[in-house]
Amino acid sequence: MTWLDNDGYDPTPAGERLARLWREPGILQIPGAHNALAGLLAKRAGFRALYLSGAALSASLGLADLGIIGLDELCLFTRTIARATALPVIVDGDTGYGGILNVMRLVRELEDAGAAAVQIEDQSLPKKCGHLNDKRLAGADEMAAKVAAAVRARRHLRIIARTDAAAEEGIDGAITRARLYRAAGADAIFPEALTSAQMFREFARALDAPLLANMTEFGRTPYFTAAEFENFGFKMVIWPVSSLRVEGAAVRDLYSTLMRDGSAAAMLERMQTRTELYDTIGYNEYEALDASIAKSVPPPDRRARK
User: Could you tell me if residue 55 is inside a domain?
Assistant: First the structure.
């Protein structure tokens, strides 16, 4: 199936498909996909929902995660990932791109781009990654007003309210804020940068809402498995930047090899083959939509001759 035809098309709005997944027993595992190809690979691995991280998108554009990407860039990547994979995509909306009206426009634009949910956080601009120091929090009432505005603007998009308050106001402050955001209409709550299993369990006991955990690498949260987060009482877990980190290390090694050897031959075993790539993106399925295009046959894999 390609996104150009309707084979297997599910007319259920993306937000409703996502909510249906998080209502199922167990925990919904959601990998980050920083572009459509990563999303397709995640889908082939068996994942049923995806996360588009503002940090990963910013880095892929050569920018710092300080709230400086634009709405057009966010919607472009959302659209390409959602249409290529047909999976529900949770999109990192940072602080909402401004005030109340900006938040409402963000919601409408992301719905039109195919998103299933938007995550909005309670920092003020310039915002930071949730696992860095000296974050500046917005007022709790200001954030609650943004959540209420997002709910008013949405048709099906689910609203996930993220609180970064644990580092600045402690677990009690984060819980108080989360309850306020839930009362304002948030469909799910995302407590950022919790630092122990006890904190996750305490948060889950205190909130009557679907909870999302962030298992980012090299951050403040210890490495927990999806099963552990489920045991803590969470319904979703994301790995927001993992795909970009692995890609970055692999491409770095490729360029080092090219500079050293003048050839990429030493990297062939680590590459996706032409056949594997075409299979992932459905190359022949696109060709089949136009009878004038002859089916392409990739050249043989030269590695097999060794």
Answer: yes
Could you say which DSSP state residue 267 is in? G
Distance CA(95)–CA(162), nearest Å, equals: 9
Q: What is the model's pLDDT at position 306?
A: 46
Integer Cα distance of 140 and 129 in angstroms: 19
pTM: 0.94
Domain carrying residue 259: 248-305
Q: Where are the alpha helices (DSSP H) in the chain?
A: 14-23, 36-45, 54-60, 71-85, 100-113, 140-153, 166-183, 197-206, 226-232, 242-261, 274-281, 283-288
108 falls within a domain: yes
Last residue of a domain, one of 184, 212, 240: 240
More confident: 66 or 29: 29
Q: Within a 10 A sphere around the Cβ of 288, how many other Cβ atoms?
A: 13
> Residue 5 — pLDDT band, cuts 50, 70, 90?
confident
Helix (H) or strand (E) holding 31: strand 28-31
Identify the domain boundary among 240, 267, 291: 240
**Would you say 115 and 91 are in contact if contact means Cβ atoms under 8 Å apart?**
yes
